[in-house]
Amino acid sequence: MKNLIQKYNIPGPRYTSYPTVPYWDKEGITIDHWKGSTLKAFNESNDSEGISLYIHLPFCESLCTFCACHKRITKRHTVEEPYLDTVLKEWNLYCDLLVKVPKIREIHLGGGTPTFFSSKNLKKLINGIFKRAEKFKEFEFSYEGHPNHTTKEQLQTLYDLGARRNSFGIQDYDPVVQKAINRIQSFEQVKKVNDWSREIGYNSISHDLIFGLPFQTKKSIRSTIKNTITLKPDRIAYYSYAHVPWIKGVGQRGFDDNDLPKDDEKRHLYELGKKLFFENGYVEIGMDHFALKTDTLYKSLLSKQIHRNFMGYTAGKTKLMIGLGMSSISDSWYGFAQNEKTVEGYAETVNKGVIPIFRGHLLTETDLIIRKHILNLMCNLKTEWDLGLPLSIKKQIIRRLQEMVADQLIEVTDTQVIVKEEGRMYVRNICMAFDLKLIENKPNTRLFSMTI
What we know:
This protein has 16 helices and 19 strands. The protein is α/β, with parallel strands linked by helices. α8 (about 220-230) packs parallel to α10. It starts with a helix and ends in a 12-residue tail after the last helix.
């Protein structure tokens, strides 16, 4: 095990998309191409499955040093209304393009800290979205919250607007770790917000934990997980800390690399967590996720409806996911587009009446096939060969997989690739064997976090 961890612990993508963002077409995507791609997906799927919205709310009152998200640190809540006005203007630009009334199957508020925003402004946002849309028959509304900045009023307001699932960033309860990552929050505060959610009627509560943070030990992670399990969240995301200070700059340089658990030490933290989750009725879902059997994420796994996109794992798939807000990424299945990455640049473009994308990628036929393979592996831990790859490319992939076959991580047959239980922790490495963009253009600089 130790030798395998050292062997396969290399930089690699997390595959929330294929191609991954660094390998999007350097020529980019024109606004007309993106509009065409969006309309194609919308016309094919709005009536049959609806669309998804991801809304990025970037503001946080303080900087967490583990965070690799696009955010804006401020305590000035006067930023709320102008930002939401811009988001709703952007939504209107899409509604003008789509012509027919969008049927929204899923809304997710991410960040940043969505609960930075007041109840009044959260209500303004969601009601503003539905002035020009209607709910799909299978509607799901979820959001992320910071336990220190989530009130009972906000929880009730979002519930009344249709939210039935929320997710709280916990990360770790150990005071030494919390100090290192600048995320000071007590178990008592988390319990209060968790209990309020249950009392109000939320049917799915998720807690995010991270392993591999500075100063974490088996003892500290065991304590964190035991505290978490006493609250019995329906889902637990147990993420590997992505240490990418060369991308995110000062935020991830608040501690020394030597303070981080390394290789097999880090993996032992994962295995300990996994053992504790299993002992308490959780089932492993894809990569880094666990759920109770009563949760929709587990049910979607059984029904083969589970999907993975820029929001992570979801219980259902829509062909079109529109990202609103600065830095949001949209997915039309046939293409990706990312919005301007600063609040100012985003607002300036929207106020000109232009959908604010600054880069994107239109998928080729080969891209689409590889995307299906990687989604199958990430979601269901197996994929079938009959998706239409040219024989020459298939042979190259099989050749790259042989070392993992020899290490007994996967099984490769004439019809499929199956990830064994021993290979689950290496699923990112397995997907890399399919990643033609990565193979053709190996990076000369550090782009990705370590796979383990």
